[in-house]
User: Which sequence fits this backbone?
């Protein structure tokens, strides 16, 4: 006889909203954006703001904290600057060392920040991820203002709802889904990027264009060389449209906190994450994503999903932007898919991180992805060879 | 001239839902509830389940893991038991030592849990808070099934959306808002509670009744002596109604993740949290809450908000349940409100944790609270004296 249980069915919705702003000279005395954002949430009381800087960014903008000090003095009725500036290294170094999180927690405690205070993070995606995780877990969530300073962070990492650090050798093993209070993209920061960081962000734009917007892909194809020459205008357009597509995806996908198994925007990422690890993070995330996408696009072509013409278009667009589409690590232990050093191991690690069934995205045509749940290792081996050949002699 | 900024306004909702179940003999072979909950979310694939036990609970139920092993074997098509049982101490010891969180993260990594796996936590509120925080931050959220084993956890702590641990000497300094996958209240666990833990949970029921439901308060007043004599029937009713009121508050308050300043259910908690700390956690949370509420109710009466008759009713109901309503720590440094050891310091710590303006709840009548933003220290000093007198000679 089945038992009877009393059950209370709990159900509720939570609304999230935040502004993603595009500006220039953020802390110039004449730019009221930053102060206005804080004031809009708290018209009467001055709130505390703690700053976390990416060391790399700070070395290119050594006057920034002094500028912020002056800005804060002019807006003292709106916010109070915490004088304790936290700096952490950029790139995966930030995410691989959990003491940065501890250090930010300590600074939050020392400054007596509360849930109406702010942590403003100025830096690349890794610094934003790390400091964002620290802020999200202090007092169950201090508000964050993200000021991403790389192309990749401005068009992708910083506009979304995630944060996290690496642990146990796994990318983003620790983290939460917590939207920011606001995101501010200041184009000035892009000028001081080195060439690799400038380029890295382009691959996420190509990715989202391939999956969602053929017109945007045409724009990228057309402007690839100008982007590679560091022209600011097409880059601003790229960042705006890419951020917009990401935000739209988060808002309309029906699963912003990824409770299900699918993650359609992670195109090419199973291989990318593994390649970052296999190259000891010598590859930047965006560089690894370019290779990961090239691999899955080549697989899509070999599998008969994608036309040869579109396959060439995709690879040539990456190439024109200056990307390298092959690294020797792709060939590691290809005969032992379970081996820690095999690229194929990335499939299982990807599945594990998402949970549930393996779900990867392939390309049917430019602007249209298709999810699959099984892959053919031999076809991937062929795709890797094809990339090696292409890299030696582009079509 | 004001600058023009491009702004993308991001806005989306996230739906959360979970069952709060009331059962008996949870892992009895004939009880399908646990397996059914997992199967409902994943009809085809067996999911991994890691168990975290409260050491105190385990010492009273030494056969429990063996029983779960058998249960898992019978439901192997639904879930796979992770053989590595984690046990952590109960009470604030769990929350004061962050190595428990690290240890659970390690176990999650060792067992390769993914976002479709489960951490099932069996224990008191502190263990559920600690293990819940660990689960919420691994892979940005492993699903948790909470099996609270104390009255306090069954009717309050475990049905809500929070988790966390203490840090820097502050309660719940680290934590997140992440709802559980399910909550299962098994009445069997209440039988082995010691008298203090049995009683402790009653104060949260009195609290929520005072604020929201005069009928429920009458029920508690009427059954106070039977509750103190450990009769199971009124206790089951108390837990069900209290859980229901909590869940309803979370779903309908409009601010389940507490982004605003108000937290109406934290009646009496500014003093309670501080008293726990001042007594080195000698006071159980529920015992401290009883004193905190008695204090704020007495203040409400002295302030002219609450009638003398209702004031007496509240104190006498606590008394009939067996609560002590005065501890000498209430008198610490009353002339130095900013002093670390003064109860008044709890007001600022409470404000800081919530953020924003100080907001505390007082009582207008039984079943109806009222928020205030300023307090009168002298009136609180008088209320403390009154409690001391009452404790010596109840009215």
Assistant:
């Amino acid at each position: 006889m089945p038992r009877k249980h009393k059950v209370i069915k709990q159900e509720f919705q939570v609304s999230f909203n935040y502004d993603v702003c595009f500006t220039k000279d953020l802390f110039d005395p004449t730019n009221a954006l930053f102060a206005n954002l804080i004031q809009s949430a708290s018209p009467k009381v001055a709130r505390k703001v703690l700053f976390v800087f990416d060391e790399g960014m700070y070395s290119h903008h050594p006057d920034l904290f002094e500028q912020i000090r002056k800005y804060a003095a002019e807006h003292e009725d709106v916010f109070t600057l915490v004088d304790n500036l936290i700096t952490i290294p950029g790139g995966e170094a930030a995410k691989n060392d959990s003491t940065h999180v501890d250090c930010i927690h300590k600074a939050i405690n020392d400054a007596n920040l509360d849930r109406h205070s702010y942590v403003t993070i100025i830096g690349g995606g890794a610094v934003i991820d790390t400091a964002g995780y620290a802020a999200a877990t202090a007092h169950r969530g201090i508000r964050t203002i993200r000021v991403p300073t790389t192309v990749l962070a401005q068009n992708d990492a910083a506009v979304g709802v995630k944060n996290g650090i690496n642990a146990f050798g796994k990318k983003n093993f620790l983290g939460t889904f917590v939207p920011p209070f606001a995101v501010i993209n200041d184009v000035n920061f892009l000028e001081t990027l080195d060439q690799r960081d400038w380029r890295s962000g382009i691959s996420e734009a190509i990715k989202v264009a391939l999956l969602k917007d053929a017109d945007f892909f045409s724009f990228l194809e057309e402007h690839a060389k100008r982007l590679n020459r560091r022209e600011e205008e097409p880059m601003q357009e790229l960042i705006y449209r890419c951020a917009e597509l990401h935000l739209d995806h988060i808002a309309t996908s029906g699963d912003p906190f990824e409770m299900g198994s699918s993650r359609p925007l992670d195109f090419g990422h199973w291989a990318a994450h593994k390649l970052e690890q296999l190259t000891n993070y010598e590859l930047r995330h965006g560089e690894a994503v370019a290779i990961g996408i090239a691999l899955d696009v080549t697989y899509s072509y070999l599998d008969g999903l994608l036309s040869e013409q579109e396959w060439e278009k995709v690879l040539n667009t990456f190439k024109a932007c200056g990307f390298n589409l092959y690294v020797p690590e792709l060939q590691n232990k290809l005969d032992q898919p379970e081996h820690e050093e095999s690229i194929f191991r990335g499939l299982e690690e990807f599945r594990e991180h998402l949970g549930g069934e393996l779900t990867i995205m392939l390309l049917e045509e430019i602007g249209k992805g298709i999810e699959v749940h099984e892959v053919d290792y031999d076809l991937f081996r062929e795709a890797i060879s094809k990339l090696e050949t292409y890299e030696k002699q582009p079509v």
